[in-house]
Records
---
Amino acid sequence: MTDALQLAHADLVTARGLVVGAAQVQWTGPAADRFRTELDDAAAAVAALAADIAGIGPPRPWAVPIVRALL
Amino acid sequence: MSQTPPGCVGTPPGQLLDFSGSGTVVVTPEDLALAAGSLARAADLLRGAALHLVRAAVDPLRIADPSCVARIGWSQARLLALAEQVEVLAGRTAATGAAYAGADDSGVQLAGTLGGVLGDNPVLLLPAALLAAQGVATVFGAELMAGALTGRHGSVAEAWTRTTGELTQDGRAAVLTGLLAGVVQGLGPGRAPARTDVPTVVAGLRTMTGDPPPAVTVPLDEAPDLPAPTGLADAVSAVDQAYGVDGRTGVILVQRTEHEDGPPSWLVAIPGTQSGALGGDTVTDMTTNLALEGGVPDQMTGAVLDAMEQAGIAPGDPVVLSGHSQGGMTAQAVAVAAGSAYSIRSVVTFGSPTIPQPMPCEVRVFALEQTQDAVPDLDGRAGTPTAPNTLVVRGDAATDATGPVPGPAAAHERAGYEALARLADESMRQQDLTVPGMEGAPGASTTTAYQATREAAVVATVPPTMTAAP
């Protein structure tokens, strides 16, 4: 199975794309500005989480033989 | 402003000075529905990602690294919170799209209703209820907008029912439909559909309501001290002062300012609607609104011209006309009617619909409108067109206690327009632009007040200004 972190990261990337896409809707005016600001904030938060998860990286090399031995 | 008549060769193009969030509202409800769907899908994905993190957290290879598990746990909590946030956004987006779509449908239905009323029973259009049409339409429009954007109402139909519930009981709703249709459609998608039939309908209503009692223009003993005007904010402020002269209505302020190097300049300040009646003592009433919007003769335009004559404005003296709401329509009508009798250089309107007559080519128009103010849309057009020689100054009304969208009072009130005028003045100063009729260093300034009234006791004391032809 693919690492669950990679799956989570892929979902986040897709989710961010959807949020950014939603912000492209043709709608102008003060309310639209507030709407876009909220979407931008949400997209930024999703991107930050995706980066954080990507930064977790692979399991520590030294842990692999220990865990396998225990299993 | 009104369309420019043919032959205005060399007239500067219209301009828009936009201080609002991003200008006129333009929206396609279907797009908002699609956006809401995308956000709902994004929320699902975020929850799915959180589930993946749960699996990652129990992966034996990850468990061996406590700091890794901690980071995964933190990310998971953050993901769930984000999913909820995006889901709320999706719901609000869907509600807003539905509200806009409903507004569009309501506008169409109202237009149909109007046609039916006109065709089957014109008498229904007579009731005195029309009388409060402008105010009610303003309240309804702003309420509808607020409901659509904040999700306070489940649907536009609900907003419509709630707002008009009392009105329908006494038949007033029937006579409001023409104006409301214009307002509702103005708030709909793109505020685009212009109702060009509004002036025709309103002129018809004006005819059916009968002529008001005669009015006269009389000088008043006292007038406020106004600073010599140098920009739009002073023009707006002068009108504000006209509303408060000794508790009177229909007060017109005429301010004369001396200039060392030329003739005196004049600022004429005209108030807006001050009565919801048809034909009472107050000239700034619904009769005048209907006449101005219908493009037929009205008493307030004549009153302003009378005041200008009594004040001694010479044909060559530069004149600036300024008016709020109905007063802005009167200012436009005076500019049209003045012809060569006066040198009208500028017309300043704020919160005003446009009149059907085209403005003279040489008159510079400054049209201030707050985006949330529904009154300028009562002419059936969404916002003020940037016609040639017109500078449309647009800005957002300040919010009030009603929430993120200004209430109807805040959106139409004069104080907000004064703030917008100051912004415009500053911007114009940076571009070395001035209000025609306010150029040069001002000298001493004096103000005279006049009152337009139909009060019988006053009318009886004023000699007729016209005599019958022999």
Note: Residues 66-120 of chain B form the longest helix (55 residues).
---
Amino acid sequence: MSRLRVLIASAAIMCVAGTFSCKVNLTPQSLAKAWKGIKDARKDLTPENEYYVGRSVGTNLLAKHDYRYLDGDALRAGQLEGVTAYVNRVGAVVSMAALATRRKGDRPSPIGGWHFVIVDDDTINAFAAPGGYVFVTKAAIMAAKSEDELAAILAHEVAHVVRGHALGTIKKSRWAGVAKSTLDATVELDEASLGKLTAVFENALDDMVDGLLVKGYSRKTEYEADRVGMDIMAHAGYDPSAFVRYLRTLAKTQHTGSGGFKATHPKSSDRIKKLEKKLAKMPKRRVPAIRVDRFVAATAPLRGGPASAGDELSAKQRR
Amino acid sequence: MAIKRAMLIPLAVAVAAMTWVGVVQSKPKLGQVVTVRVIRAKVMRAPRFIGPVAGNVSRGQQLTFKGAKGDWYQVTGRATGWIHRTNVMDKRVNLSSRPGGGTGGASRSEVELAGRGFTPQVESKYRNKHPNLDFSHVDAIEKTELDPADLESFVKQGGLSLGGTP
């Protein structure tokens, strides 16, 4: 069905419902549900479903990087230390802003919380799994010059999660083989139903990992993550123009090499053009020296420097 | 073209109405029980994300609603203070601490609320099919958390505003 026809059909439903809502017992909520059904044809995963998808996508993404990530000993003990602690602080501020700026249908509050991991990779890239797992490579952080630029990277990835972009890479056909009864009402799954669901799960994971690491999202999706990400970082108090500055740095390197963000994102120059239009309508801010200084200090170990004092948090392990 | 425009005007009105419905959400009644939906959450001393913590709660625990301020619910029970509304369900529900009810079956309440889809059972079967995948990494990463009091210092030191956060 073409977009125009969908719009016209929706309008017709709304008009009829608006006129006869009392007689046919249609409420604004049921209309919203009907609209959602029309707008979003793919199966809508619950936060619980998304949590399990995120765990498996995250594990697959780490496996593709041979489970190499920074501050691994601490993380494997359930603790945040070093550069990872700092990145999680910035990520937490960004994700709180995402919650405050949420729109209907957003997913800003994963049931497992937000987690930011630095992948030990010299290729500039960042990617996010559903359910609040954000991965950023060491090289991507080293290409940034301030905390505000780091916040831009993280806000772009948080925007992907909040808008459910990775879930959108699951092919609609994946659901065709799953009976509605399997998805809805049964408490205990029989072995055959479980087998079907697991096969769908497996294929959906392949779709997402392929989308995140190889094919990338559509240009439209990336531009949306840029727009939403810029709003999020600005709401957190960061300078949104840092987003453009970071993309300018990337633009200088995008013509060299292959893989990483070059393979999975639109040209940086195109992204800059779109963001500059948005930026022109936003209040101007400056990056205070403290956010440059503490970024340089916290990320020094990435450049072979010493860990800065005070960059470890009293992150706790809870079981 | 005239017909298309005519159809789009009521559509715009309807979408605006639904957006309003989505934004203006209902709140629980005073004294009503709400249920923690996230694996763990902080109950804060004040209605904000950062600062002193009044207590920790975990999925399935139930709190009593005492009032609201913006997106924050004032609650009593296992912890007394403020919890963000997105961390709870506005009703009494039996939820297990593990989403979906562990590797076995889920409770009927959970299935009714969350649907079936991808659950611990599915993950367990997937892991059996892929023994080379090491889930211990995400298991550990999930347990990390930040101290909201430390985060408050971080925000203040960096001159960050957190926008509309109370």
Note: The two ends of chain B are 47 Å apart (CA to CA).
